[in-house]
Each structure stands twice: as structure tokens, then as C-alpha cells.
Amino acid sequence: MRMPKVYIVLVNYGTPGDTIECLDSILQNNHKEFQVVIVDIQNINLSINKITNWITDKGDSRFELIAEPNNNGFAFANNIGIRHLLAKDDADFIWILNNDTVIEKESISKQLDFYDENSKESKIGFIGTKTMDYYHRGIIQNVGGVFNKRTKFPDWIGAGKEDHGQYDSIKGVDHVQGASMFFHISLLESIGYMDETYFLYFEDTDWCIKALKSGFINMVCAEGIVYHKQGRSTGVNYLNDKGQLGKKKYFYFNLLKLYKLYFKSFLPYAYFFLFKKFGGRVYHKEWDEAKLIWKVMLTRSK
Asked: Which pTM value belongs to this model?
């Protein structure tokens, strides 16, 4: 029987060292029927030269690099990779994987087994992994996520907890992290590509909601383990960096966008969240970010 072919899409944005470490881990995985499409954005830090040298050194045709001169966002870059692989017409599964991750040897095979075991009874959308902290290997980043019942805010299951296997029985979730999204190519027929209007942040959540609304169940394979550096792929660690206002702008704007599209009755909470952030920035005299948040709150979305 033919082994299912898995295409892995990586986006590199100026962090070739992280990308190469990720590629090394993929090369060591025990499922050999795979292909990796690396989409490089703007060739920052000599990325194309460094990644091309790695591919040449390995002499492995399963790795290929696409050079994209324009930075039109995370979804845009991933969609380039997806369209490229679909043109080959030999893909069974796609794994959207952040370049600042390292996978365990059995991560691909475990997700394939998980799909086979659960697709008989469930219409599976996205499969997430147990995503662990790269620097503190025993700490969970997430085991998928759920929408808070009172606020609809996307919460991460197990975030910051020590891993004792306490979340390994979780299967069905509302959303999975864009750092690791595994799915059968047939899903694209129902929900299409990533929404490129988000540019950065919440495009993965939007995609997961589209899957839910189309009757799919998003799930987590706890045995498929990925170690994630968190924020290295975009150059910012969520909202903790006092700089990077441009990236924070997308977080705040897209949070409101998500609520307006899918959770209109909970929209007051989104504004309450932003107002609390605004108050905190004023209190700490972080005026630039305070102005940004105020602008977001006053801007009408289309």
C-alpha cells in the first residue's frame, strides 16, 4: 500500500538558523514520504544563500525553496507554498509548520496514525500537536485551544503547565495554533486557503472557525510533539516586547476583526479587553502603544 505523502510548508522571514534547525529535525523523522516547501520572504539575513547551501549539502530533492520578494503576511506566504504543492498533484496531507520549531522523530507518523484512527468516526478538520516550549522542554505551550464560553476569547489549553500527560486524552478542540496545523488536502475544498487579509495574527484561528462552520472537528494529537520557540518566526514574542508596534497593530486590529466576523454578540468584551490594555499602557506611560490601541478602538472595520 502506498504511503501517504505529507507536504510541509515552512515560512522563513529572516531567521535562517531557526529554519535550518527545523529542517534538520524533519530530515530525521521516521516517515520518509514527505516533501518540504520553504517560502522565503525578502531574503533577510542572507536567508536564501544559507538555506540553499543546506539543501545542496544534503543533496535531498525533498526540500525546495521558493523566493518571494514581497512581504504580504503569514497567510500570503503559506498560501504560496500550498498552491505550489497542489500543482504537483501528489499530496495527501499538508502540515503548516512554523520555522522556529523542532519536531520529534515520530511527529509525522503519529499524526497520520491519529488521522486514520479518528477519521472513521469524525469529519476531521485541522490536527494540532502537543506544542512544548523549546527552551523548557517540560513546559506546555498548548494542546490546542477553546473559545472561552463567557467571552469567546481564544484560550490555549495547558499553556505554561508542566507536562505530566494530564492533557493527553484531549482530542476535540475549537482551534489549533498556526505553528502546527496538519490536515488532509480535501479540507481545502470546503474552506479554501488562509485569509490573507489578516496579514499577521488570528489567520489560523479564522481558518479553524471556517472548518468548524463547515462541519469539521478540529483535534489534537498529543503524541505528535513539536517544540516551539514562540515568536521567533515573526520577531516578536506576542505582546511582551515594548517595541514591534507594527506587529502589535495587527494583533489588536485582527482581534476585533475576528469578533466582528464570528462573535458579534460578544464584541463588547473585545472592546473591554482593548480598553484594559489601553489603561495599562497609559499607567506605564507607554504612549505610543496607548495611541495605537485607542486608534484601533475608534477605527471602523469594513
From this structure: 0.94
CA distance 41 to 301: 28
DSSP letter string over the chain? -PPPPEEEEEEESS-HHHHHHHHHHHHT-S---EEEEEEEETTGGGHHHHHHHHHHHHT-TTEEEEEE-----HHHHHHHHHHHHHTTT--SEEEEE-TTEEE-TTHHHHHHHHHHHHTTTS-EEEEEEEEEESSSTTBEEES-EEE-TTT--EEETTTT-B-SSTTTT--EESB--TTEEEEETTHHHHH-S--GGG-SSSHHHHHHHHHHHTT-EEEEEEEEEEEE-SSTTTTS-TT--SS-HHHHHHHHHHHHHHHHHH-GGGHHHHHHHHHHHHHHHHHTT-HHHHHHHHHHHHPPP-
Give me the chain's average pLDDT, please: 94
Spell out the residues 6+ positions from residue 235 whose beta carbon is closer than 8 angstroms to its own. Answer: 13, 14, 15, 244, 247
Which of these, 302, 289, 94, lies nearest to 191 by C-alpha position? 94
pLDDT at res. 232: 53
Long-range Cβ contact pairs of 79-85 (< 8 A, separation 24 or more): 79/193, 79/194, 79/196, 80/39, 81/9, 81/10, 81/11, 81/37, 81/38, 81/39, 82/9, 82/188, 82/193, 83/193, 84/37, 85/7, 85/9, 85/35, 85/37
**Residue owning grid cell 505530566:** 164
Separation between Cα atoms, residue 148 and residue 156, nearest integer Å = 10
Q: Which residues of the chain have pLDDT under 70?
A: 231-243, 301-302
The pLDDT score that the predictor gives to residue 244 is 79
Note the pLDDT of residue 246.
83
